Amino acid sequence: MAPGDQRPPAPAPDPASRLVSDPSSDPTPDPTSDVARPAGSAGGTFPQLPTRDADDLHVPVLLDRIVDLLTPSLSRDGAVMVDGTLGMGGHTLALLARFPALRVIGIDRDPQALAVARSRLEAAGVADRADLVHAPNDRIGEILDRRAPAGVQGILFDLGVSSLQLDETDRGFAYAVDAPLDMRMDPTTGPTAADVVNTYPPGALVRVLREFGEEKFATRIVSSIVRERDCEPFTTSARLVALIREAIPAAARRTGGHPAKRSFQALRVEVNDELGVLERALPEALRLLAVGGRIVVMSFQSLEDRIAKRILQPLTESTAPPGLPVVPEEYQPQLRWIVRGSVKPDDAEIAQNSRAASARLRVAERIREAA
């Protein structure tokens, strides 16, 4: 990659990403003390959704299937699960209701989602069994080393953008309405989509659209962006959507959904380093998965699913040299697939929740200690 195509340096760690219930980092330990007023928020708070509205807004995908798949590992006494993408807490609520002795460590980088999850957990009377942490999930190893050093019996990753982020128009994730070009999952820190669009060199911007959006007209789109940003920087989504629509040939616009869909996905993935975070988070989570514990990874686009499969698949295979009459323990597989291939939602669920259509679920169980 040419020097001009490098991703800009990551911002310095934000104080809001500290482990929020750790006494050493907060003199008044409170599992949600950093949620109501995120660091860097100019003293304000995010709008709070009533629990009922959150229930209407958020429909957890493949909920019953996930609960069933995790049941064998979470039914054990003293079971601990980590929800690495807590969001508004839909999956965690269902699991805490199903398993009265379960403890959940919920991680999310979005302070607004954490605030909503906290309210829902309190309303359900299960907040005392949930430990909420404001952090990106690639800190999962550090978090579990301190909160569950003996390991966890369940791990859940529900990847991608949440309903809350899509439906809160001011967050800038949706291309159907005009909004600030933000797209940060943690709006208290880091570069925005406008920063990417207005400052990346052309080569780097083409790479983002091609790699993260699989956009075959990336060069045409970027040429138009560079020409327009030289006149006036991009600040809102409507102008960018109109430019993308014009840059894509008319014949291509008639198929494949909204013409801005792939570019907006690419910008969101870049802004939040979603694939890099996943690459770092999965190995750390697996390191702390106890024998007999299960990991569930639900993705909504092929790039995430490929990463999950690439990291999990080798651990389901023997590493013994060919021809050994007996395979020693250290060469035995560490994981086994619970479901071959991926689980997909059925037609009934897709009819009820159209956002479930692209979901793919991979599930594995640890069968021996991590190497």
From TrEMBL:
The alphabetized list of GO BP terms reads: rRNA base methylation
For the protein in the UniProt heading, the enzyme class is transferase
Q: Which CDD domains match?
A: AdoMet_MTases (cd02440)
* Cellular component terms per the entry's GO annotation: cytoplasm
Give the protein family.
Belongs to the methyltransferase superfamily. RsmH family.
For this UniProt entry, the molecular function terms from Gene Ontology, in alphabetical order, are: rRNA (cytosine-N4-)-methyltransferase activity
Q: Does the keyword Ligase apply?
A: no
Source organism per UniProt: Nakamurella alba
* Lineage summary: Bacteria, Bacillati, Actinomycetota, Actinomycetes, Nakamurellales
Domain of life from the UniProt record: Bacteria
Q: Offer one Pfam family short name for this entry.
A: Methyltransf_5
Question: Can you say where in the cell this protein is located?
Answer: Cytoplasm
Catalytic activity, EC: 2.1.1.199
Protein name listed in UniProt: Ribosomal RNA small subunit methyltransferase H
What PANTHER family does this protein's entry cite?
A: 12S RRNA N4-METHYLCYTIDINE METHYLTRANSFERASE, S-ADENOSYL-METHYLTRANSFERASE MRAW
In this chain, composition skew of type Low complexity spans 21-34
Q: What keywords does the record list, in alphabetical order?
A: Cytoplasm, Methyltransferase, rRNA processing, S-adenosyl-L-methionine, Transferase
**Bias-annotated ranges (Pro residues):** 1-14
- Ranges where the record places region Disordered: 1-53
> Which InterPro entries does the record cross-reference, listed alphabetically?
RsmH, SAM-dep_MeTrfase_MraW_recog, SAM-dependent_MTases_sf
Q: Which reaction does it catalyse?
A: cytidine(1402) in 16S rRNA + S-adenosyl-L-methionine = N(4)-methylcytidine(1402) in 16S rRNA + S-adenosyl-L-homocysteine + H(+)
This molecule's function is given as: Specifically methylates the N4 position of cytidine in position 1402 (C1402) of 16S rRNA.
Binding-site list for S-adenosyl-L-methionine: G89, G90, H91, D108, D158, Q165
